[in-house]
Design brief:
Helix content is 42%, strand content 17%. α7 (149-162) links the parallel β5 (130-136) and β6 (165-170). By secondary structure, the chain is an alpha/beta fold. The strands form three sheets. The protein has a seven-stranded mixed β-sheet, sandwiched between helices. A four-stranded antiparallel β-sheet has the order 9-10-13-12. It has 14 helices and 13 strands. It folds into two domains: 12-247, 3-Layer(aba) Sandwich (Aspartate Aminotransferase, domain 2), CATH 3.40.640.10; 252-344, Aspartate Aminotransferase, domain 1. The two termini are 26 Å apart. α2 runs parallel beside α11, α3 (58-69) packs across α10 (214-226) and α12 (252-267) packs parallel to α14 (328-344). The structure holds pyridoxal-5'-phosphate (PLP). Pyridoxal-5'-phosphate binds at residues 8, 57-59, 83, 136, 140, 169, 171, 197, 208.
């Protein structure tokens, strides 16, 4: 199977597994796991923040960042297409009593700056308090688009002026940094906290890291424990993350190149319309011209029978994500698979 459903499907390589098997471990709740301590330090340095905290997932990272900063009844400004709003099971309100104040995401993944400023609450006793702004980079729903340093810095200034915290859902921050040719540290210089994922483009089997100030991470560590996320000899999984940071950052550029080759190959196939400006990084979005009784799920099933797994992104659209497990040869097979599909019945 050629699995393009997501970059979360990568499998640890033999070298990564060896690093995991050999990891020095200890009880991380006592801060005695050498490998986790190393991963957290490495991550903080890479992100240009004071400290890092190893977590099970990106969802947990965003949730903990918000719970660390907000009280019940507070409001967080975020895009209406953000992962935190759409795909994190409403955790911030279920567990923290925090409201998402959503504003429209523009096609380039940003939010209109004037809208953000207008949305920030004043001192009116009737209103909730705005406490935080969350951005996502790369922006998944907006096509894997990378958000520029200039825009991030502008939001940083606004957040500072209004006394808000600024969190980045940087699940794919390395894809953004590579696309923008900007060191991660500099890209997120004006962000207070960031979650990045080890288990997407970086290819580790588990985990994310939340980074921020020492004071913030100290509070976040306690909330992680409260959520049942205090892990013990988890250096075994953190070692996959250390390996990924050492070996798999620069190779992400290959995923972007392969997404591009894939899009070029698909664009001339009858019955397929690429989404505007796709791909931005490692995601190709396309629309299928379905005939009357066809559904996108059928297309997905037919591709499965050809050995190709794709994600459904809408009633007529598919998402194809390149990652560490996808080779140049796979890309050619996928293009051929879509050509066969087109011959079979697309029009
Ligand atoms: C932009 C973004 N943020 C956060 C997450 C959540 O990560 P996890 O699946 O590790 O909870 C994802 C997962 O796909 C994502 O795409």
């Amino acid at each position: 199977m050629i699995d393009l459903r997501s970059d979360t499907v990568t499998l640890p390589t033999k070298e990564m597994r060896i690093a995991m098997a050999d990891a020095h471990v200890g009880d991380d709740v006592y801060r005695e796991d050498e490998t986790i301590n190393h991963l957290e330090k490495m991550s903080a340095e890479l992100m240009g923040k004071e400290e890092g905290l190893f977590l099970t997932s990106g969802t947990m990272g965003n949730l903990i960042a918000i719970l660390t900063t907000c009280q019940r009844g507070d409001e967080v400004i975020m895009g209406d297409c953000s992962h935190t709003f759409l795909h994190e099971v409403g955790g911030i309100s279920a567990l923290g009593g925090v409201m998402a104040h959503t504003l429209p995401n523009l096609p380039n993944g940003t939010i209109d700056i004037n809208r953000i400023q207008e949305a920030i609450r004043g001192a009116d006793i009737h209103e909730p308090s705005t406490r935080m702004v969350v951005l996502e980079n790369t922006h998944n729903r907006c096509g894997g688009v990378a958000i520029s340093k200039e825009y991030i810095d502008q939001i940083g200034v606004i957040s500072q002026n209004y006394g808000l915290s600024f969190h980045m859902d940087g699940a794919r921050i390395f894809n953004a940094a590579i696309k923008l040719n900007e060191p991660v540290k500099s890209l997120i210089q004006n962000v207070d906290s960031i979650t990045f994922c080890l288990s997407k483009g970086l290819g580790a089997p588990v985990g994310s890291v939340l980074c921020g100030t020492t004071d913030f991470i100290q509070k976040a560590r306690k909330i992680r424990k409260q959520l049942g996320g205090g892990m013990r000899q988890a250096g075994i999984i953190a070692a996959g993350g250390v390996y990924a940071l050492n070996h798999n950052i620069n190779r992400i550029i290959n995923d972007h190149r392969r997404a591009n080759v894939l899009a070029i190959g698909l664009q001339s196939i009858e019955g397929i319309d690429l989404a505007p400006n796709t791909p931005q990084t490692n995601m190709v979005f396309l629309n299928i011209r379905l005939s009357e009784n066809q559904t996108i799920d059928q297309i997905q099933d037919d591709l499965r029978t050809k050995g190709i797994l794709v994600g459904v992104a809408g009633k007529q659209s598919l998402r194809l994500v390149t990652h560490l497990g996808i080779s140049d040869e796979d890309i050619q097979k996928v293009i051929s698979g879509f050509m066969d599909l087109s011959k079979d019945y697309l029009n």
